[in-house]
Structures are given as structure tokens and as C-alpha cells.
Amino acid sequence: MNGLLFYNGFGGFREEGDEYVITLPEGQMTPAPWVNILANPNFGTLVSECGQGYTWIENSHEFRLTPWNNDPVEDSSGEAFYIRDDETGKFYSPTVLPCRGSGNYQTRHGFGYSIFEHLAEDIYSELCMYVALDAPVKFFVLKIRNDAARARQLSVTGYVEWVLGDLRSKNAMHVVTKISPDDALLAQNFNNLDLGDRTAFFAATSTLTLNSRSVTCNRSDFIGPEGTLQNPTALDGKQLSGNVDAGLDPCAAIQLAFNLAPNETGEIIFILGAGQNENNANSLVQSYQTKSAADAALHTIREYWRNTLSAVRVKTPDLALDVLANGWLMYQVISSRLWGRTGFYQCSGAFGFRDQLQDVMSLVHTHPELFRSHLLLCASRQFIEGDVQHWWHPPMGRGVRTRCSDDYLWLPFAICRYVETTGDVAVLDEKIAFLQGRPLKPEEQSYYEPATQSNESDSLYQHGVRAILHGLTFGEHGLPLMGCGDWNDGMNLVGVLGKGESIWLGFFLYTVLQQYALLAQRYGDKAFAKKCNDDSILLQKNLEQHGWDGKWFCRAYFDDGTPLGSSSNTECRIDSIAQSWSVLSGAASSIHARQAMSALNQYLVRPQDGVVTLLDPPFNHSKPNPGYIQSYVPGIRENGGQYTHAATWAAMAFAQLGEIELAWQVFNIINPIHHGSTSDAIQRYKIEPYVMAGDVYSVAPHIGRGGWSWYTGSAGWMYRLIIETLLGLELRGDQLHVTPCIPDNWDQFTIDYRYKETMYRITIKRDSKNVLTLDGVELNTHIVSLSNDLKLHLVNLSVL
């Protein structure tokens, strides 16, 4: 299609890269749902290219306003809109689903909004969906234009099915509906003990003069006894039933009828949301149901994302890299991982302790204040003993306590990164209370219960100390105990008896000890700095002595001492993350580090298939049983598929070794745009080519097919791989280290880097010299001292 980048027969990027445009002629659908996630910190919605999706408040799993469905074939929803010709009775949706009209549909997914355009029967419609940045309100703004030479009598109907909890089947019978003084439809579920006061609303207004307005809150009346949302019975009549009460099959439907003159354009604005209580809901309706409020909310959203995503702007010879780095990766991190905590294929709602801590580490260049606040939030989910909730559900804080062995170590790891990159040492003195909860019973791997805040609190620094001390438990090889899983939760039986050891965790713990030793020294805690250094030296020795398998590093030892990830195994002979972290940690000897990564490249990097697998061969029947990872089909997800999170670590490790060509090869393999840049490629990959996939299948006949999209920690690591590892920008307080790792065929690239409110324009080019200048002054270093003086600064780096 003219003007679209990487067009694949279904869609492509606008030239600016800020929208993904999908065009669907009659009878055509994308290979799988291609969605957008529109969210603020406490409210949001997911919407597909067909207009289907769901909406939540506070927690995308626990308090859904409308139903979540992850059927990639049906792509069903509890939200629907219809345009009807009231003279003929013919109706269709302004989106592809649920009731497809004639002609082409076009969907544009952008940062914070999705727009659906359609023209049929001389009626042009444009439906724009977005969520207010600072309020629990979703907007559906429908612009409708009469392109006919005669006046038209039309009606527009908006419909939502209420859930007001996690599942409609559990909650529908308890939902009570009513009409507010402003004609909004309200819904409450007092049976939900945690969120019973929340009051959902659905309201509509128009810039047009209305002929009539009708409503119903009874789904049975709207759909009919044998109807569906594709053909609801209510649209066969002139008006909706007006049925509003308790004891119904709960929904909210509003129909507005009007005349539209030739060439006239009007707007119908629907809002969906929820207040803390009925009064708050009524107040939100009054504040946001006007056209001016809807326009202002959209402007605020666009400005927020423009400002956030413009903190780092790159222009390189690799256009696919530019599109990802200049918007989509950071948008995925914030909208899906931090705010929504959802995707089409997984609706979590919970914060994962290790998960979002890794996500926020990518925010140092764009949103460091979100990084800071999340550090403090995670510290508040740490138990007195030093372990943490593996994940927890806001707002009530119920979560799972486990024997996972790595969760709590991500806290000191993230603390070190935050302080090093921002220079904000004051955060170390922030006081945070610990949780208290019953200890795990000997026979328990985990339990899910409420945890209460204890009377004991300490500084963030001491929270990090307590996490490290809790992690200093070792097995017979002097390696960390694996517990019921480390980073790979699916290996939950490797150390379930309390004796199994993790070699990957050894490398990660070594990294944490080394970094926290420096932080402790800076903080004035020389005794703990010495302990960290001493323990890391001993751990490094044990990793080399007991982790090395001859050509690569093992992954772990089972409780009975059997090695995992060893050449002696028939399944999982080699695991990616033990090799990459042997390099990233700096714990492995130079010879072993290079041998390990050579083996990773030989066995796990498969450019011919477009995948970088996590382990090989996959688990199937091997003994001892490593855990639920073996229940996955071989070659799927963690069981020998590409787990993209780990693949980014492999690319980082290759770069750290100076293997530039291999680092870029891995980057190009895992770049989703390359999986969807042609018609043949997208028919294999199927899922969205504009965001990261958590996994890609490696087994025939589905080699190269994308798995979960959006809700994956690989987005944040991919951003760091691009900006920090490959393009070479590392922020350390008020200094920017510039050490690019670029392909031989690149002559030049530029980066606009915003430090607070000040822009630095960085140009890096090939030259016979190796010189860096700042505003024309040559420096004898690759370090730029940053100043927030509101002036434009020019940085030029010549590299050999």
C-alpha cells in the first residue's frame, strides 16, 4: 500500500512510525487479532483491529467492567456499536465486528488511541477509542457523515455487557442497574466485597438534534432469545425496551436516533467507566460526556505520549530499528506491562515482583520517576524474612508466597541500576514497611493469601540487604538453591526438595553481589560491601568449578545431583540463559565465556527458521522431571521455543564479547517487524508485527509462529538492547557514556537525547579518527557531561 512502511498485505506503519494502519477489504481478516492497549495507571481497555475488546478498572483481571475473551478465532467481545438506516432497517457496525458491513474497513492503532474508518451506503464513519489519562473513562467518539444527496434517518446504538468482577458467570446475577439523573446507565455489584462500592456507567451524548433516545439494561431484550451481537433482535424494532432494574441479564445499551442532512457531519460520544461510588460515577459522567471534554482528553493523551516517546529519538540506516525504538517498545512497556498488565492472550492484572521490576529498568531515559515509585512499591511487598510476594493483585494486595529463588534478588539489582543511572541516592533512605505472613509449610511450594503490613519498616537500602541475605543459601556444590523455580518458573521441580541448585542463579547472584558491594561502599556500609565481595569471590570459584560442563555451562543440578543443561542429558542439553549470564555477570573466565556463547550460537541460534531458542532439545519424557515446563508441547514457549526475553540477553552477551555481527544477527532475528514485513512472513508469524512477542514457536509445522504478544518482559529488554547495548548510550547520573556497537555497513546515525528538559543531538559516524566533541570542543573521553541548561547541545563522535 502506498505510503506504508513494511506493508504485508494487511497493514503497515505510517511513514512517521506512530500508527500501524490495517486495511481489511470485504471477506478479509488478519491472521490473528491485532490489538492495541489503551490505559492509564488505574483504568484501561484492550481493542482489536476488529473493534473487539474489554475494559477494566484498577485491575484488569479482578475488576473487569466488560468480558475478556482470548479466543483468536472468534475474537468476541462484550462491547459493540451499530449504525442503522431507520428507513430500511439495515444495520452494521462501524468496526469489522460484531456486525460487518459492506466495503473496506481501516483500523489505525496509535499511541493511546485506535481509529476505525468505514464507508458504506454513502455513510462515512470514524470511531475513535481512547482512555482519559487521569480518569477512569473510556471514550468512543463516533463521527458520522452523510455523503448522499438526500437526508438520512439514522440511529446509532452502543452496547456493553456488564461483568463487574472477574467472570460474568460469577457476577451477572448480582449486578443491579439504574438510570442516573443525567440519563447515564449505572451498574453496581455489591456482592463483590472488595470493590462493591464501585459504580460503572455508560452514557451517550451527541452534537446532533435527536429524534429519540432509548435504553435497556437487559441483555436478553437486546440480543433476543436466539440472537447474537452480530444480529441483535433489538435492532429490528424502532426503540430499545427501556428495561432497567435488578435481576436482569445485565448490560447497558443506548440508542440515539437523528436526521443527517446531505454532507452533514455529526458526532456521537459514548463514555464507559466507573467511579469509586455512585456519587463519583455521576460526577465523572457530568465532567466527561461533553464534546469539549472528549476533545481535551484526546489532546492530553496525544501530548503525553508525544512527550514520553520523544525522550530518545534515533535515526539509523535500519528503519525497522527506528520504528521500534522511537515509540512502540516503550509504549508496550508502559501501556501493557505497567498500566494494563494485560494482553490478548493473557489477562493478569497482577504485578509480578521480578516482572515489572525488569520492565521499569528500561525507563531510566524516559520515565525515571515511574522507576522510582515502582521500586518503593516492590519493597512494600517484601516479607520480614526477606522473601517477597511472587505476584500480587492490587488494590487489596492478595498475592502468592513461594519458594522461587530469584524474585527477591531483582530488588537489589534494580536498586543498583536506579541509583547508578539517576544519581538519586536519597531513594536509599526511603522507609518502607515489610509484610508479615505465615511461613510456608514444609510440604508447600506456595500459597495464595492476603498479607498484612507489619510494624517493622526499614530503608530501601536495607530492604536490598535483606533480600541478598535471604538469597545466600547454597547446596553441596556451593551454588544457590533453586527452590521451586528461578527465572524459569516452569522448572519448579528441579529443586523442590530443597537440594537442587541453579547455575544461572549463581551468575545472577554474583552480579547482584558485585553491584551491591559498590553501592554499599558508596552508602558507607563497608562491612556489607566486604561481605558481598567475599561471597562473590567464593561463588565465582564454585561456578567455574561445578558449573562448567566442558563446552558450555550447565543450567542446574536436580535435588538428586543430576545435572541439567549438560551434554550428558538427552533433553535440554544446553540452556541459553546460563551461557548469556556467564558473560553478562563477568563471572566466567574469558575462555569459558567465549566457548559458552559459541555453543549457544551453534545450538540455539537458528537464522534459517527465524528463532533463537531458549534450550535444546526440548523436554518431553526425560527424568528427573524438571516441572511443568515438560507439559508444554516441545518447541513451544519455554520448552524449547524462542523465549524472546532470553534472546535479548544472548544478543547483549555477544555484544559484550565484541561479537558485533552475532549481536546484530540475534537482534534482527527477534525484531518483530521482520516477521511481518511481507505477505509470506506474516502468514507464518500471524500475530502483531508492531510489538514484541513473548515467544515464537520452533517446532514444525508451526516454526516461526508468534505466541503471546504485548504482555511480555521482552519489550523493556529489547529497548535496552537497542539504546544501550547496540547504539551505546549508557546514562550514569549526569553523565552519558557513548560506546556504540554498530555494524560494518553503517556509516552514520543520529540520536536526539533529552536530558530532563535539555536536548542533546548526537551524531555518530565512521572516520579514521576516534574523537568525541561536545559543542565543537574535543574531549579526551567518550563521556558527555550533561547539564539541564535548556540549550541545544551538539555531540559528534567519530568511530573507526
- How many E strands? 42
Mean pLDDT: 97
- How far is it from the N-terminal to the C-terminal residue, by CA? 39 Å
Query: Which overall shape is indicated by the principal axes computed on the Cα atoms?
Result: globular
Unreliable segments of 5+ consecutive residues:
none
Structural class: alpha+beta
Roughly how many Å is the radius of gyration? 28 Å
How would you describe this structure to a colleague?
By secondary structure, this protein is of the alpha+beta class. It contains 18 helices and 42 strands. A hairpin with a 4-residue loop joins strand 30 (605-606) and strand 31 (611-612). Helix 6 runs antiparallel to helix 7 (368-379) and helix 10 (503-523) runs antiparallel to helix 11.
Features:
ten-stranded antiparallel β-sheet; 800 residues
Give a short summary of the structure.
By secondary structure, the protein is an alpha+beta fold. It is built from 18 helices and 42 strands.
Please render the helix and strand layout as text.
Layout (H helix, E strand, L loop, with lengths): L10 E3 L5 E6 L10 E6 L2 E6 L4 E5 L21 E7 L5 E2 L12 E6 L2 E8 L2 E9 L5 E10 L5 E10 L6 H4 L3 E5 L5 E5 L9 E8 L3 E9 H5 L26 E11 L4 E11 L2 H11 L2 H19 L2 E4 L3 H22 L10 E2 H8 L7 H12 L9 E5 L4 E5 L7 H13 L8 E6 L9 E4 L2 E8 H12 L29 E2 H21 L2 H22 L8 E2 L5 E2 L9 E2 H9 L5 H15 E2 L4 E2 L2 E2 L25 E2 H13 L3 H11 L1 H4 L3 H7 L9 E2 L17 H13 L2 E4 L2 E4 L9 E8 L2 E9 L5 E3 L2 E3 L3 E3 L7 E7 L1
Parallel strand pairs: 38-42
Antiparallel strand pairs: 1-2, 2-8, 3-4, 4-5, 6-7, 6-12, 8-9, 9-10, 10-11, 11-18, 12-17, 13-14, 14-15, 15-18, 16-17, 19-37, 20-21, 21-22, 22-24, 23-25, 26-27, 27-28, 29-32, 30-31, 33-34, 35-36, 36-41, 37-38, 39-40, 39-42
Helix pairs in contact: 5-18, 6-7, 7-8, 8-9, 8-10, 9-10, 10-11, 10-12, 12-13, 12-14, 14-15, 14-18
